[in-house]
Amino acid sequence: MKIYTKSGDDGETGLYRGARVRKDDRRIIAIGDIDELNAMLGVVHSLAAAPEIAEPIQRIQHELFGLGAQVASPNPAAAGTTILSNDSVAWVEQTIDQGESQLTPLTAFILPGGSTLGANLHQARAVCRRAERNLVALYDGQLDEPAHVALRYLNRLGDLLFVLARWSNLLSGHSETEWRTAPE
């Protein structure tokens, strides 16, 4: 089988067990953001030596792949695509709590950066927030339970990626830079 099908040459793509839509459709934009986040986390995983960072990242990648399939399905239940559960959201929260227990509480905003791994985790957090915004636009207030879980998952995931960035910087001995207003 060839990787190219030529079926998207006119600016359309097919949904999973659904119709063809334009490549600038809100659903395709949301899927693209989720895919970009997953690819960014592939970079993060390649840099992560500590299991405290690598293991959660790999689980997140699997869950994001399922989320992408869910979003690509006009009717996820009928298509049998993986649907995130409240257990996934609870796991993200537990992982945040575990990471935060290792960190000094913040007293100021910090700049994204630190180690290469930390900086990439901060970038993944920003991509996650964009994916969340575009999923909100796709659902347009029509939140069934799977959609609501997906939004909660991405919201918590952005927080987790922030905590993992801080944790990875701590593990690698990189200090955080507090934000301050520019000198006059």
In short:
This protein has 184 residues and is mostly helical.
Query: What is the string of helix and strand elements?
Result: EEHHHHHH
**Average pLDDT for all residues:** 90
Approximate shape: elongated
CATH class: Mainly Alpha
Indicate the CATH architecture: Up-down Bundle
Q: State which percent range the strand residues make up.
A: under 5%
Within the CATH hierarchy, at the fold level, what is the topology?
Hypothetical Protein Ta1238, Chain: A
**Alpha-beta content class:** mainly alpha
Please count the beta strands (DSSP E, at least 2 residues each).
2
Give the distance, in angstroms, between the N- and C-terminal Cα atoms: 61 Å
Major β-sheet, in short? 2 strands, antiparallel
Quaternary structure of the protein: single chain
Helix tally?
A: 6
Rg on CA atoms, Å: 18 Å
Regions with little confidence, pLDDT below 50 for 5+ residues: none
- Look at the structure and name the CATH superfamily: Cobalamin adenosyltransferase-like
Integer count of domains: 1
Helix content: 55-70%
The strand line-up of the biggest sheet is 1-2
